[in-house]
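Sample entry (268 residues):
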Amino acid sequence: MYNSFYGISHNPFDKQLLREKDCFESGDAKIMMNRLNYLKDTRGIGVFTAPPGMGKSFCLRCFENSLNKNIYQMKYICLSTISVVEFYKEFCNQLGLELKGGKTVMFKAIQERLYYLYKDKKQPLILAVDEAQYLSNGILQDLKMLMNFKYDSLNCFTLILSGEPVLNRTLERQVHEALRQRITIHYSFQGLNPDEVIAYVRHKIHVAGGAESIIGDDALSAITGYCKGNPRIIDNIMTTALKAGAQMQKTTIDSDVILAAVNEQALG
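Predicted structure, serialized as tokens:
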């Protein structure tokens, strides 16, 4: 209903309809993409942290979409609340390896495949582990060992650990000192600043073919004050605001509509 009322082709704040080419280039997104592009050639470890809803996973999606598939092979793992052996099995699945033998056999098979991809196929792996704050100490320690090639003189693949800020505290533990020393890139998201919040909302509306007049300056100010720089919170508020605004026959979403949307979100 609200699509036709506001003259938009779709709900631009629905993550399921978000296309990589329509990505809003926030400061966080630009920094993460630049550092990922550096990391893919140095083949080290990158750690990216942010509170939920900041867009880390979407940045990984955009990064994978930008890769030359003839040069790079990227795999994505989100099963982080599992045992060490289960992690090895998932890693083997991602690499197309047969699941046979125990941890030692799988470790050797994984390292051999990683070296083959790097040395022979010239297509080094990029492994992204999302929700990495849930990884056990055992998995983190084994990831460190999987990075060890040629007496620790060669990086055969890129490891990306993406998670919530608690991941930083986990990596600060003494038991992970060796892993921490291997980290090449480390970035924590700052969130959208007030100017970016406004630009983000307008960008999304523009992507859906909507006019800038759909939302008023007072509404943008209200969103900025409430969202704390979090894109997911903005998306939730604006989705609710589009529905409420259409029901209230408001051709321009104002601060009253945003307040109603915020209250509805709070009750939800």
